[in-house]
Amino acid sequence: MGTLYLVRHGQASFGADDYDQLSARGRQQAQRLGEYWRERGLVFDTVLVGSLRRHAQTLEGISAGLQGLAAPVITLPGLNEYDSHALLTAIHPQPLPKPDTPELFRQHFRLLCDALAQWMAGVISPHGMPSWDEFSAGVHAALERVRHEHAGQNVLLVSSGGPISTAIGQVLGSTPEATIALNMRIRNSAVTEFSTSPKRLMLQTFNALNHLDSDAHRDWVTYA
């Protein structure tokens, strides 16, 4: 029996022109996760990572904390996040105000959840995005790769909240509504674990931040 460690990227640049860039806090979160694993002697056999910049930067931080990562790294675009801007534009063509207040922040994510539900149901086709079935198939292919090629190994997967919640939904057979709710709860640098075998994957932990569970790091917890 092996373990698949699914890691959401560190804090990115929410509200900036270029979201796909870790903040200084995001880099700290990623490096701290690597340090935590090094302290516990965890060694990875294989690494799967999306092709977005924030995924690569998160993996760099983890590697720095581990003081080196000898495992082969496989880049899979199927682990990339959905385009939240395209989703929002599909249901709200008019420009939205910058979500720089608590109420505008909540409004942003209410609209995003609505757009996700419509995309998953096939009601909207956001510009430049795959269909939900295509997006889901990319995540499924990554999980099947682990099950068939890396069962019995420690596998690190670095991605985003959308693909990770989709993976959980596939393993648990969750409804679209439950998958969206999971997506909205996944914190930056949080770890979700699946036990792996050639026959199946099973959820062991969800959204864990053990590496930040100390007085020195508790204020490092972020969501966006």
Break the fold down into its secondary structure elements and pairings.
Elements: E1 2-8, H1 24-39, E2 46-49, H2 53-66, E3 73-75, H3 84-91, H4 102-120, H5 132-149, E4 154-159, H6 161-172, H7 176-185, E5 191-196, E6 201-208
Parallel strand pairs: 1-4, 2-3, 2-4
Antiparallel strand pairs: 1-5, 5-6
Pfam family, one: His_Phos_1
Organism: Acidovorax bellezanensis
Keywords: Hydrolase
Explain what you see.
Keywords: Hydrolase. InterPro entries: His_Pase_superF_clade-1, His_PPase_superfam, Mito_Ser/Thr_phosphatase. The protein has 224 residues and is α/β, with parallel strands linked by helices. The protein folds into two domains: 29-82 and 131-212, Phosphoglycerate mutase-like (Rossmann fold); 84-128, no CATH class. It contains seven helices and six strands. The protein has helices at 24-39, 53-66, 84-91, 102-120, 132-149, 161-172, 176-185, and strands at 2-8, 46-49, 73-75, 154-159, 191-196, 201-208. It has a six-stranded mixed β-sheet. A hairpin with a 4-residue loop joins strand 5 and strand 6. Helix 1 packs across helix 2 and helix 3 packs across helix 4. The chain is globular and about 50 Å long. The mean pLDDT is 96.
What structural class do you assign from the helix and strand content? Answer: alpha/beta
Largest beta-sheet details: 6 strands, mixed
Q: What spatial form do the alpha-carbon principal axes imply?
A: globular
Give the neighbour order of strands across the main sheet: 3-2-4-1-5-6
| Count of helical regions | 7
CATH fold title of the largest domain: Rossmann fold
Distance between the termini: 33 Å
The CATH first-level class of the largest domain comes to: Alpha Beta
CATH superfamily annotation of the largest domain: Phosphoglycerate mutase-like
Stretches where pLDDT is under 50 for at least 5 consecutive residues are none
Strand content: 15-25%
Which series of helices and strands comes N to C?
EHEHEHHHEHHEE
Under the CATH scheme, the architecture of the largest domain is: 3-Layer(aba) Sandwich
- In percent, how helical is the residue content? 40-55%
Rounded mean pLDDT is 96
Total beta strands: 6
As for the number of domains, it is 2
Radius of gyration: 17 Å
